[in-house]
Amino acid sequence: xxxxxxxxxxxxxxxxxxxxxxxxxxxxxxxxxxxxxxxxxxxxxxxxxxxxxxxxxxxxxxxxxxxxxxxxxxxxxxxxxxxxxxxxxxxxxxxxxxxxxxxxxxxxxxxxxxxxxxxxxxxxxxxxxxxxxxxxxxxxxxxxxxxxxxxxxxxxxxxxxxxxxxxxxxxxxxxxxxxxxxxxxxxxxxxxxxxxxxxxxxxxxxxxxxxxxxxxxxxxxxxxxxxxxxxxxxxxxxxxxxxxxxxxxxxxxxxxxxxxxxxxxxxxxxxxxxxxxxxxxxxxxxxxxxxxxxxxxxxxxxxxxxxxxxxxxxxxxxxxx
Length: 321
Known about the structure:
- This protein is of the alpha/beta class.
- The protein has a single domain (2-312), classed as Rossmann fold (3-Layer(aba) Sandwich).
- Helices cover 40% and strands 12% of the residues.
- It has helices at 23-31, 34-37, 66-80, 92-103, 141-152, 160-163, 165-183, 187-199, 230-240, 259-263, 265-278, 303-312; strands at residues 2-5, 12-16, 41-45, 85-90, 108-114, 216-222, 250-252.
- The chain has a seven-stranded mixed sheet, sandwiched between helices.
- Helix 9 links the parallel strand 6 and strand 7.
């Protein structure tokens, strides 16, 4: 399932959604990014197993792989006759965007990778990789939601989901989504298929190939993100090598997507627009750090330590958007 938004004469932008996120859930955030949506013809896609797209069946590939989602997106581009477009990958969508670009680089005008990583950790919290969400699949619903909310923004205290109006609203919203998913045939299986594919994602050794093709690539990351930690962003940029034309991640002082759209919509939209249409990010941030924070295990009691370790590495003089 897909949906187009914008004037047909505008530059084309493929938007690849985060984990377990449908067009219905994603679009409101983009509608608030007026500087962006007014500049592109946006193509939104429901990944297989989410929204109005097909749910898992016996004819789906086995084992699950992110490359399958990339092939789905390319099939939609072919259906629409889009030979080339800008590509925006958000979180899990960034992983799909990496595979898509490696599969068919000629289809990509520019590639913006937001709050994502080149690989996923096998367990615990390896800050150089994306957080292993698949480890939370079998946890109780309330525990899974709470952990995801706390990991999404490392500034949040352990009691935030229950002790703040914003946290309570987020808990209620995600709990309702869980209930809806449980009542939708195939939805839980779709999430498990996606998380299993995500768990196997590792294109670190392959990304350097993008340096040999004329694709502009930018990595946009958040310094308080615990799902795609800052160190994972620097690892992604390093894996891209000279393909990352910005010389390092573009940093935002917030948490995981969709906090970029909530907290810094203007800066986020302008950064994407200037990168895609002009080839450079105005007021971009370059952090020359070998590693952002050590590899540690997830322990909620160490939340403040995690935050401190991350921020202490951002010692170079820089502007954070």
